[in-house]
Design a protein that fits this description.
Layout (H helix, E strand, L loop, with lengths): L2 H60 L3 H37 L2 H7 L4 H25 L1 H15 L10 E12 L5 E14 L4 E8 L7 E11 L4 E12 L5 E12 L4 H6 L10 H12 L4 H34 L4 H27 L5 H31 L1
Antiparallel strand pairs: 1-2, 2-3, 3-4, 4-5, 5-6
């Protein structure tokens, strides 16, 4: 590239950046104040309703130290901030564009030939950035903070859950067999049961093996432990009952130690698992693989819905930004009215989330549809409002 071509390209780029930055920075500056107000207000309301009252009760009833309560409160703050970001985006765009509309600044910009699409673009760019921030925040900060808050509170109240399930560990495995008529039938292929688990060994084990479509063998053992070196189970002091097709015992084998190639999943299932809100997407997917082999369909569907909601919730920033910008351009809205509209939008959003949960768990819609239902509806409302504004603007020019 020659020096003259480089100068021309640089000049062209600088002109574009200048044209973009003057208007965009001005519009964006109008959004910053209401956005910060919305984050502070909505996250404070969330903390008060979802955490503060419960902590105050624990302080008065259970003697929870105030220092521990403050630590738990700070650890729970990221979760409520993440929930407040979409609502604050709605409030910011609604108030910001409404202020520009009420002072006729949008009319002046429109008279310069700037389209509605171009006026809304700064809000969409800002909300897209917030979507990325919210998604990253939800993955890296929120689950770890919520888990640490739960552990801190349990320890302080001496209600700490054991790192394992102490008794009655059931782990079913399911598989498909081919029937004589050619159809495949999903059946129980193996049932793993342990009476007790002390964190290292399981005791009182019974394994029923039906891997060939009928009862093949029954394994009874005093104890068993996972061998991480060989990735296999070590069973101790037990008996293997081999069953023939007619249902009688064909062979009985007693053993002091027997290694069996069984999945590690019963051990993972016995370990203390995080709640849905204490896992990021990667951890949720890893846990999903564990429970899928167990065949608990309702639990599997619920976790799939939660994973999709983790993807969908950050995109509510874009949807709410679109709704707020479209409404703000149409009419003047005070801060109080904007706050009321934001609260109503949040109520409808979480009501749709509950409806999606119910429909998904009932298998009426897929987990993907259930998780994305409220965000998709919000996008639909935002697009309809923007199209209406474009139509009204075209009619006014005629």
């Amino acid at each position: 590239m020659t020096s003259s071509s480089y100068k021309d390209a640089t000049h062209f780029l600088s002109v574009i950046i200048l044209r973009i930055s003057v208007m965009d920075c001005y519009i964006t500056s109008e959004l910053v104040g209401p956005f910060l107000f919305g984050v502070g207000t909505f996250s404070s309301i969330g903390v008060a309703i979802g955490s503060l009252f419960e902590l105050v009760r624990e302080i008065t009833d259970s003697g929870l130290p105030i220092a521990i309560a403050l630590k738990v409160l700070l650890l729970q703050m990221p979760y409520f901030i993440s929930l407040a970001l979409p609502t604050a985006t709605l409030l910011a765009t609604l108030i910001g564009y409404s202020r520009l509309s009420s002072d006729s600044e949008l009319i002046a910009l429109r008279s310069c030939g700037i389209s509605i699409h171009r006026l809304v673009l700064p809000a969409l760019i800002a909300s897209t950035i917030l979507t990325g921030v919210n998604f990253t925040f939800n993955e890296l900060v929120v689950p770890a903070a919520r888990f640490e808050a739960a552990i801190t509170l349990e320890r302080a109240l001496k209600k700490e859950k054991p790192s394992f399930r102490e008794s009655n560990i059931f782990y079913p495995e399911y598989g498909k067999i081919k029937r004589p008529d050619g159809k495949k039938l999903r059946i129980l292929t193996r049932l793993f049961y342990a009476e007790q688990f002390d964190g290292q060994q399981m005791s009182g084990l019974t394994i029923i093996d039906r891997s060939h479509g009928q009862l093949n063998q029954i394994i009874v053992s005093e104890s068993a432990a996972w061998n991480p070196t060989e990735n296999i189970w070590d069973f101790f002091n037990g008996t293997i009952y081999i069953v023939d097709p007619k249902g009688s015992y064909r062979q009985i084998v007693k053993f002091d130690r027997q290694q069996l190639q069984l999945p590690r999943a019963p051990l993972d299932l016995a370990a203390r698992s995080r709640d849905y809100g204490e896992m990021n997407i990667a951890q949720s997917r890893a846990y999903l693989k564990i429970i899928q082999t167990g065949g608990n369909e309702k639990k599997i569907i619920k976790l799939k819905i939660r994973i999709q909601q983790r993807y969908a919730l950050p995109f509510a920033c874009i949807a709410f930004g679109l709704i707020g910008a479209a409404l703000g351009i149409q009419q003047h809205t005070s801060r109080g009215t904007g706050f009321g509209i934001s609260v109503l939008a949040v109520f409808i959003y979480y009501m749709l989330m509950s409806i999606g949960d119910a429909l998904g768990l009932s298998s009426i819609i897929t987990p993907w549809m259930a998780g994305w239902l409220p965000t998709t509806c919000a996008f639909g409302v935002g697009i309809l409002l923007l199209l209406r504004q474009l139509r009204d603007s075209s009619a006014a020019r005629k």
